[in-house]
Amino acid sequence: MSHHPEATPDRNLSLIFLFAATLFTSASLMFVLQPLFGKILLPLLGGSPAVWNTCMVFYQSILFLGYLYAHYLSTRYSQHRQIQIHTALILISFLALPLALPENTVPPTDSNPTFWLLWTLFLAIGLPFFVVSTTAPLIQKWFANVGHHTSHDPYYLYAASNTGSLIALLSYPFLLEPNIGLANQKSYWSVGYLILCLLIAACAFVLWKSRQTSEQQGDDQDTTADENNLSLATQLHWLALAFVPSSLLLGLTNFISTDIASVPLLWIIPLTLYLLSFVIVFSKWNDKIHPLMVKLQPIFLLPFIAYAFINPADLPYWAYLILHLIAFFFAVMVCHGELAKLRPHTRHLTTFYLIMSFAGMLGGMFNTFVAPFVFNAVYEYPIMIIAALLLRPGLKLSLNAGLLLQIIAPALLVIAGIIVHATVADLLQYFDAIVIGLIGLTLLTYLLRARPVGFALMTGAIIFLALGLHGLSSHTLYQERTFFGVLAVREAVLTDEQGKPESYHELFHGTTKHGAQRLAANLSQIPLTYYSRPGPMGQLFKEYDNSDQTWNIGVVGLGAGALACYAKDQQNWTLYEIDPLVIDIAGNPAYFSYLSQCAHNAAMRVGDARLSLEKEPDQHFDLLVMDAFSSDSVPTHLLTKEALELYFKKLKPGGILAFHMTNRHLSLKKVLSINAEALHLASLIQEFKPQQEVPLVVATDWVVMAKQAETLEPLRLSRLGNWQKMPLYFDMKPWTDDFTNIVSIWK
């Protein structure tokens, strides 16, 4: 046994500030780079969610590889050799600066661009992002070896890393994006990366000169042997505790936009809570906060299950949002609190973080690539709620009568529900009684809070039965899910002009209605909702009725296909739609018959609007209708100055651009007005509200634009609707592919 002289621990606060500042800067750069480079790619590849999903897989994969590198470097090499290798890696990464796409890079047009995108991301930002990814585990491992009096437990520095992530996350949409263009963002990021490299160099210098280097070197050489001290069960437990919150975060974000409200930037709130949980649990306060979270979670779960799943009251969307966010925060706080409580000795620090990053990558892959193909709605969200309850402290999996009872009782409840559903003809007449029964069972689950298996499975059984009951009551004829969201066809009933009940079909994307059709043969060719004959689109086609006989018309965004019923025999229509499932639904007469009855001469194009229009000949269209929505949101790259220039490049000199801008949350007319003014375009707006009660004729807002005011003059002078000149705004710059500002157009 060797003996070393006792080293006096360093109590210098400057060491903490140096290492914390390095972690803070690294995390900030990581969370700024992701949306920054996404915006760089947007005009090149369009707004397909598949693009964002591919980018996220790239980021998570590089993060995992960065953690793997840090683990291998710190467990296989001496501290001096670690510094030499990492310095060489940083110097090589400078070749990727300043940030930019590779020259003459063009995505393939005749094949899937996934591998092209991954290769482009690797060439453009792969090395700098990899270096940034290695920082959190490597710098904490180095801090564990510098001889500070807190070096035995450096995990609290992880709070600095997550604080940097949190601040970068909030500052990008509210501070950086509104005030700094993309070109300057790239330059500033490169400067920030150089500052990070200097901070890493300072940390390396401290480690190099550390008095404990000779002592720690022997410890590092034994680390490989010490890995055997970590049981497989412990590592799998870490994996589960990190995987479930990662999947739950993505599931809740998707659920909010699909089932609650498609509000721009709403995804920031769950991610903020997720990062905040790391800040709290890896701080010195976790020992007191974690037991409190464990006690409060089942108490709050009772109203959450009752109001969010069993019997949703008539509450505003923000009330539902608060319910889900609080339940989510308790779940991630309990899981991450357990993770922090189980953190290992510093010799296993990089293993711990490696498993955490691997779990995060698995969570992203499960929600991105598995769930959309397995489920026809966002079912991964309630599944992960149940999984989070299973991970509460006190889980014992030894087989005994008590555990069997905890499993059998929820299973019997589900089986009973399925039997009742199959045998009772009109289950909805017992709706209130079933709801009261499920709420009563929810109260009983509280008694199982100390038994995670029974608590989780009974809660899961109740959620399963509640979802089945509400699916039955919504009269959903068809529901399917793709990368682009959840699409549903529902049957509803209206009161017709004679006061009689009449069935009709509706198309929903998430929470937003994207079209409707009456089923009677004499009414089925009447465009409804945002495209009604009394509304702006009906007015436009009626006013130009005598001159549009041979028009070439393009429509971006298919919906249920209602606009096609304005088509005339000599016209040529081209319909653009990014989601093939929308085309399948609109083309199926069992759901909607607009296309089969009206679109005899229409050509269909699948793909992103800007990319599809680029392929069309210049000066081709007489009328171009922009009606592209993702749930309730218009993709921002379709609103920019460059997008408008593209549209008018494809329109004839006397052509008209019609833009649908109905939106619950954003004032899109502001963007269109400023861009029209910048491009010297004539424009009119109508914020239409029905003057009388007509079935399925709804309020809707449209803008029309042309190169010359004379083109729109017939519409302005007509008495068909209240068309007015666009208001002028002077408080915002034009939106471009380089600059957008969502915050400035909130209603």
TrEMBL record:
The chain crosses the membrane at residues 12-38, 50-70, 82-101, 113-134, 155-175, 187-208, 238-257, 263-282, 294-311, 317-337, 349-367, 373-391, 403-424, 430-448, 455-473. It comes from the Bacteria. GO terms for biological process: polyamine biosynthetic process. InterPro entries: MFS_trans_sf (IPR036259), SAM-dependent_MTases_sf (IPR029063). The keyword Transmembrane helix applies. Keywords: Membrane, Polyamine biosynthesis, Transmembrane, Transmembrane helix. This is Spermidine synthase. It comes from Methylobacter tundripaludum (strain ATCC BAA-1195 / DSM 17260 / SV96).
